[in-house]
Structures are given as structure tokens and as C-alpha cells.
Design brief:
It is built from twelve helices and 20 strands. By secondary structure, it is of the alpha+beta class. The chain folds into three domains: 159 residues, no CATH class; 102 residues, Pdz3 Domain, CATH 2.30.42.10; 83 residues, Pdz3 Domain (Roll). Strands 2-3-1-4 form a four-stranded mixed beta sheet, covered by helices on one side. Strand 2 and strand 3 form a beta hairpin. It is globular, with a radius of gyration of 25 Å.
């Protein structure tokens, strides 16, 4: 229920932003807007504004729409014809249709700007160990090095390091890493291994770097529905105490044990609801062959030593540049992933639907307002990019038809446009089916 509430909040925010983009530009292009709807279906709330637009809240929260005066959909008097969408110039129609996705991207820039101005706390990216003969070792990195920059971009926290590496790892690209080694700045180059989306979370392990982290208390912050952790009876807030009658004080040690115990029965003890109880936990076998239980740690319960505390923050003006860069980088990564799915280089198993999004929404909200804003920024970018794809029924599909109109000199016939819309509808249904199927597979195994 918690995840569902924040999923609906996130969806409502992003739908309003997207549709308001269409609405705002349409009004300024002289088009009459008949209805502004958040959600689909029979209205549960509606009001006609002074501008004559009907504002609607509908029960199916899977999108929204802006209905404009259009002679192709309804009879329009000659006096009102000048305000119809279909009577506008090609440039105005392109502006109106593209305004929704652009609004999503602008919102992401604003969200990232806010995060960068307020500051994002984290842990200094100091290397604890470098695996011998690894990519990092061959590049010249050593234990004790602090990563300062990747490809010229500052990386004051491990989170910023992860983001910089993930942007390059999917296709295996060369990067330049600037480190502080014994207070001396050094630059090293290395080629990242090409890894799939399901492996990017282990990118540091892939290149042979072990981060220096404080001993994190093994207190659970999230338990995924249908996961081995939930089946064992674990809940958010539980503190893991021991396994096989041996006390395990840190989360890192628990991770090592679970990864090494795929498919094996672990007799554990946890502190739950004020008492010490015994449970049986069986980690499932992950795609990398290692054990996993579908639970995350609540790092906020562990105090970070002063010498490892760091913060990613910029001034209001400088933050604009990095907010744009961050939005561009995530947009590029999204497009690469989509292209990878189309070409078969990236598995469609990585496609997530509403269940996955709801789980991430709830998890990010639990971690605080800034985490939830970051989540909104990423989903807003994804929504904007997806809507720009040249698929009929999406904004990108309309833009593709406008491009054809510009080349041909006149629009496609209404009959052809209807048939194209039907094809687009089938494509969207197929994508939604895959996303739902992946969600259900993750939940029920």
C-alpha cells in the first residue's frame, strides 16, 4: 500500500507536467483546449474553468490527455475554426505535440538542479582494495586512492562514481579516472567491460575495485514482495543478528554470506518487533550465479565517520550546467538501452512495468524527499524519451507524421492515419504485456 501511494503520487505529478506542456503551448498557439484530463475513464471530479477548459480527474492513472478543438473529431463552426488544432501551421502543431516530452525533460533538469544546490550526501570514493590482475590493477589504481573525477566530471561520492561508470559500462567504453594517491593527483585510463543492465550494479567488482565503506548495521530498509526474504518472514526494520549460530555484525558480511549461499538453507536470528526470533532463509540463485534474498539495507541507521563523509553540491548557477549534463547523460543511457533491446544486445527482461516502478517509488520515498525527487527526475526523463519514439499514438508518432507531411507537402489521409494509429496501439499493448510479464516474474519467481 505504501509503494502504491507513492507510485500514484509520482504518476500524478509526471502526468500533470507532461500534459501541462501540451496545454501551455497549445493555448499560446491560439488553439482552444476543451479538456485537460489526469487519468482515463469516467471522471471522478471535473470543473470548467474561466477559460472554458474542462479540468478532469479520472480513475485510471495510466496517463492523461489534452483534448483540443479539432475538425477531424467533431463539427466546428466557421467562427471557431481558426482555433482548431488541425487548422494550425505545421510549426505550431510540432511545437504543441513536442511540448509534453520537453516539459518532462525540463522538469528533470529542475529536479537535478534542486538536488545539486541543496546537496546530495554520500561517502567519499576511497578504494579499499584492488584485485590483482584486474582491469583496475592493470590501469594503475591502488588501495587508498580517492577517485576525484571520471572523464573530467567531479565524483565526490561513491554514488556519483557509480553513475559515471554505469553511463559507459553498457557498451564497454574507455574512461579516464583522476585519483588522489598519497595526496598526489594522477590520471589513469581503462576500458570498462561491456555488461548488461542486470550487472551494472556490480560494475566496481567487474573492474576489480573494493570500496572503502563503514561497517553498516544489518538493519533492513526494504523487503521486495515475493522475495526469499519475505518468504522467510523478514520485514523492513528487522536487524539481522546471526546465521548458523555465528554472530554477523555488519551488512557487508551478510552480503558475502548470502552471495555464497545460493540455494542453501540458512538458520538465522533477527531482532523483530522487540524480540529475538529464529527464521529459515534460503537465498535464490541470481543471474550471476550468486545468492540473493531481495532485501536492501537501511544505511541511514549507520553513522558515517567524519573522514568518509562527502557531499555533491554546486552553486545555483553552476548547478544548471551539471543538471543539464545529468539529464543528457541519463537520456543518452535510456536511448542506448532502448536501442540495445531493439537490436537484441540488451535483454527485454530489463523492461519494468508499474509494479517495479511502484516498488522503486516506495523505496525512494522511504529514503527521504531528495531520493524521491531523484526518482521523479529519472522517471520523467524516461517518460519524455519514450513519448518521443516514432510509435503511432505516442507524441513521437505524431511528429513522425508531421515530418512526412513536411516532405510530402500535405498530411496523410485520415484513413491512413487511423490505420497507423491501430498499428501503434498494438505495439504499445505488446510492450505493456512484456513489462507486466517481467514484473510478475520478478514477484512470483
Amino acid at each position: 500500500m505504501h509503494s502504491l501511494i507513492f507510485f500514484l503520487i509520482a504518476l500524478a505529478i509526471l502526468i500533470v507536467i507532461h500534459e501541462y506542456g501540451h496545454f501551455w503551448v497549445a493555448r499560446r498557439c491560439g488553439v482552444k483546449v476543451l479538456r485537460f484530463s489526469v487519468g482515463f475513464g469516467k471522471p471522478i471530479w471535473q470543473k470548467v474553468g474561466k477559460d472554458g477548459t474542462e479540468y478532469v480527474l479520472a480513475p485510471i492513472p495510466m496517463g492523461g490527455y489534452v483534448k483540443m478543438l479539432d475538425e477531424r473529431e467533431m463539427p466546428v463552426s466557421e467562427e471557431q475554426a481558426q482555433f482548431a488544432f488541425n487548422r494550425q501551421s505545421l510549426a505550431k502543431r510540432v511545437a504543441i505535440v513536442s511540448a509534453g516530452p520537453i516539459a518532462n525533460l525540463l522538469f528533470a533538469i529542475l529536479a537535478y538542479w534542486l538536488l545539486l544546490v541543496v546537496g546530495v550526501s554520500g561517502i567519499k570514493p576511497v578504494i579499499d582494495d584492488v584485485r590483482p590482475a584486474s582491469i583496475a590493477a592493470e590501469a594503475g589504481l591502488h588501495a587508498g586512492d580517492e577517485i576525484l573525477q571520471i572523464d573530467g566530471n567531479d565524483t565526490p561520492t561513491w554514488n556519483s562514481v557509480y553513475k559515471a561508470l554505469i553511463q559507459k559500462a553498457e557498451y564497454g567504453e574507455k574512461i579516464d579516472i583522476t585519483v588522489s594517491s598519497a595526496s598526489i593527483k594522477q590520471q589513469h585510463s581503462l576500458i570498462l567491460p561491456q555488461v548488461g543492465l542486470e550487472q551494472v550494479g556490480n560494475i566496481l567488482e567487474q573492474i576489480g575495485i573494493e570500496p572503502l565503506r563503514p561497517a553498516i548495521k544489518p538493519i533492513l530498509g526494504e523487503v521486495m514482495p515475493g522475495s526469499p526474504a519475505e518468504k522467510a518472514g523478514l520485514k523492513a526494520g528487522d536487524m539481522l543478528l546471526s546465521a548458523q549460530q555465528e554472530t554477523i555484525p555488519s551488512w557487508n558480511q551478510w552480503v558475502e554470506l548470502i552471495q555464497a549461499s545460493a540455494g542453501k538453507k540458512l538458520d538465522i536470528e533477527v531482532f523483530q518487533d522487540g524480540e529475538r526470533i529464529a527464521l529459515t532463509l534460503i537465498p535464490e540463485i541470481g543471474e550471476d550465479g550468486k545468492g540473493r534474498i531481495g532485501a536492501a539495507v537501511d544505511a541511514s541507521q549507520t553513522a558515517i565517520p567524519q573522514e568518509l563523509q562527502a557531499e555533491l553540491r554546486y552553486g545555483p548557477i553552476e548547478a544548471i550546467k551539471y543538471a543539464v549534463i545529468q539529464t543528457w547523460d541519463f537520456s543518452s543511457s535510456t536511448l542506448k538501452s532502448l536501442w540495445g533491446m531493439i537490436t537484441g544486445k540488451v535483454s527485454t527482461d530489463n523492461l519494468g512495468g508499474p509494479i517495479s516502478i511502484a516498488q522503486i517509488a516506495g523505496s525512494s520515498a522511504e529514503q527521504g524527499v531528495m531520493s524521491f525527487i531523484s526518482f521523479l527526475a529519472m522517471i520523467s526523463i524516461t517518460l519524455g524519451i519514450l513519448n518521443l519514439l516514432p510509435i503511432p499514438m505516442l507524441d513521437g508518432g505524431h511528429l513522425a507524421m508531421f515530418a512526412f507531411e513536411a516532405v510530402r507537402g500535405k498530411p496523410l489521409s485520415d484513413t491512413v492515419q487511423v490505420q497507423i494509429q491501430k498499428v501503434g496501439f498494438l505495439v504499445l499493448i505488446m510492450v505493456m504485456f512484456i513489462a507486466f510479464f517481467n514484473d510478475l516474474s520478478r514477484v512470483f519467481g
